Amino acid sequence: MKNIVILISGRGSNMEAIVAAQAAERWPARIAAVVSSRPEADGLAFAQSHGIPTAVVDHREYPDREQFDTVLRQTIDGFAPDLVVLAGFMRVLTPAFVAHYAQRMVNVHPSLLPSFPGLKTHQRALEAGVKLHGATIHFVTADLDLGPIVLQGVVPVKAGDDPETLRQRVLAVEHQIYPRAVRWFVEDRLSVAGGLASLTPPEPQWWFATEQA
Ligand code: GAR
Question: Which positions are annotated as binding N(1)-(5-phospho-beta-D-ribosyl)glycinamide (predicted)?
């Protein structure tokens, strides 16, 4: 049985998707806690209503990133995590924090990495005129948004899209791919070598959204 700690900063819809998939598919895992960097994060209420322990480490209470990360790490480690899941966690983490969870921390990023790391990914994708966009689940390394890629979900960019319509289409794919990637970790199917993440036994590490998505 693996312990999963999910970190959020806001809405927490990816956290909800993971909680729902774990409950429906009965992976050998437990959502040990949901930790938020903001006390007003909407996702906290969902976690509490599902009997999941919650904690808040409010980044505004710490003078610098190092002190915030130290308390955050202590809080997470209090739940003995096998896997830390960043689900819309909008803080840049220190190298020491990232190293502490090496190969046991994953993130969702709303683009097909290595395209469009950072913020405003949907707007930048539209400005670049790409015809495919999507989301990436990756292991977290010290390079922001550039760790070994576990799974990518692809959506079309449609005529008339604006950042919001594209965001919604990508978010629906995030909800498909993130639970799947977490399940692979729980089932000990993921390995990392030479900066690449592979899956045993192999199956597609991509997901194409259906036209309705
Ligand atoms: C998601 O779209 C996720 O890809 C993005 O924040 C959103 C959180 O939504 N993450 C990042 O931009 C990280 N760089 P959620 O709170 O509803 O899961």
Answer: 12-14
If asked whether residues 93 and 117 sit together in one domain, one would say: no
Handedness of CA 159, 165, 168, 174 (dihedral sign): positive
Q: What is the mean pLDDT of residues 154-179?
A: 98
Of 101, 116, 138, the domain-final residue? 101
Structural domains of the chain, count: 2
* Residue-averaged pLDDT of the chain: 96
**What residues have CB less than 8 Å from 21, skipping those under 6 apart?**
27, 179, 180, 182, 183
Tell me if 152 CB under 6 Å of ligand 1.
no
What CATH number should be reported for the domain holding residue 76? 3.40.50.170
Given a cut of 60, whether residue 213 has pLDDT beyond it is no
Question: Which residue range is the domain that position 49 belongs to?
Answer: 1-101
Rounded Cα gap, residues 58 and 42, in angstroms: 14
Residue 102: DSSP 8-state: T
Binding residues for (6R)-10-formyltetrahydrofolate: 65, 107
Please give the pLDDT value at position 138. 98
Residue 109: active-site member: yes
* Statement to judge: residues 62 and 128 lie in one domain: no
Average pLDDT for 94-117: 97
Please give the distance, rounded to the nearest whole angstrom, from the Cα atom of residue 8 to the centre of ligand 1. Answer: 9
Q: What pTM, to 2 d.p., does this model score?
A: 0.97
From 66, 101, 136, the end of a domain falls on: 101
> Where does the pLDDT of residue 132 fall: very low under 50, low under 70, confident under 90, or very high at 90 and above?
very high
State the distance from the centre of ligand 1 to the C-alpha of 26, rounded, in angstroms.
25
CA of 50 to the centre of ligand 1 (A): 21
- How far does Cα 148 stand from its chain's mean position? 13
What is the pLDDT, as a whole number, of residue 212?
Answer: 52
10 CA: nearest ligand 1 atom: 16
